[in-house]
């Protein structure tokens, strides 16, 4: 369940101060392949940064609504204030839909009806920029906005890219890497087509890491093809991810002392350095 809770329960090791100007950075997680860890990474990063005192908004832009479920917001719960589908349709204002999770971060939840929106978007003028226009007025209210994109390059995924300053690509194996050139091409075309879109590739993060020859080869080939974009941080494969998802709790909250939680903290620190979040 989600709660309306202030962010005064912060850790003693908070890396930011309360009296500060929010940075308004927007980061999408995208990959055409499913199961690479996009949603798990968004929920983990959001909870870590919120615990450090940053004001973070997570946006569930995937009809599967798994990000919402990981934060305990169920689309079958009729008590929630709204969903991102209603924003696309113009039925609600963005302030009406945002909820605060019990882990400190904020969330724009999704419901399964978002699939209907993706069918409707192609016939709408300016459909590629709808999410950007929703988020632009509130960007400066947050330090970081994380967008979970669906595993394709349809209208919702394109909206996630055009709404973002940066995009991060989780890759879990050779198949997860195969479509990266197409993703980069689509993002670049958007920046050329729309004057206000400045989306850039932030990096590639290897997920589901195991000590195998295939993973070693993947790391080597990724470093060769995208030498400046392969992040140092890697996320190992762990049953903790499945358990935390089933219990609707982000990994760093569910099992803060686990090795995979430490992986995500290292990733959060690496991204924070690149983005100057602290």
Can you describe what's shown?
With 278 residues, the protein is α/β, with parallel strands linked by helices. Helix content is 40%, strand content 15%. The longest helix has 17 residues, at 259-275. It is globular, with a radius of gyration of 18 Å.
List keywords for this structure.
278 residues, alpha/beta, Rossmann fold, 8 strands, 15% strand
List the helices and strands and how they pair.
Layout: E1 25-29, H1 38-51, E2 56-60, H2 66-70, H3 84-88, H4 94-97, E3 99-100, E4 106-108, H5 114-120, H6 130-135, E5 144-148, H7 155-162, E6 166-171, H8 174-178, H9 180-193, E7 200-209, H10 213-225, E8 230-236, H11 239-246, H12 251-254, H13 259-275
Helix pairs in contact: 1-13
Count of distinct strands: 8
* Helix and strand composition category: alpha/beta
Strand content: 15-25%
Amino- and carboxy-terminal Cα gap: 30 Å
CATH architecture group name: 3-Layer(aba) Sandwich
Mean pLDDT: 88
Order of helical and strand elements: EHEHHHEEHHEHEHHEHEHHH
Give the domain tally. 1
CATH superfamily: P-loop containing nucleotide triphosphate hydrolases
Over the alpha carbons, how many angstroms does the gyration radius reach? 18 Å
Q: Strand order within the widest sheet?
A: 3-4-2-5-1-6-7-8
CATH topology term: Rossmann fold
| Low confidence ranges | 1-14
Shape: globular
For the record, the CATH class is Alpha Beta
Distinct helical segment count: 13
Largest sheet properties: 8 strands, mixed
Summarize the structure.
With 278 residues, the chain is α/β, with parallel strands linked by helices.
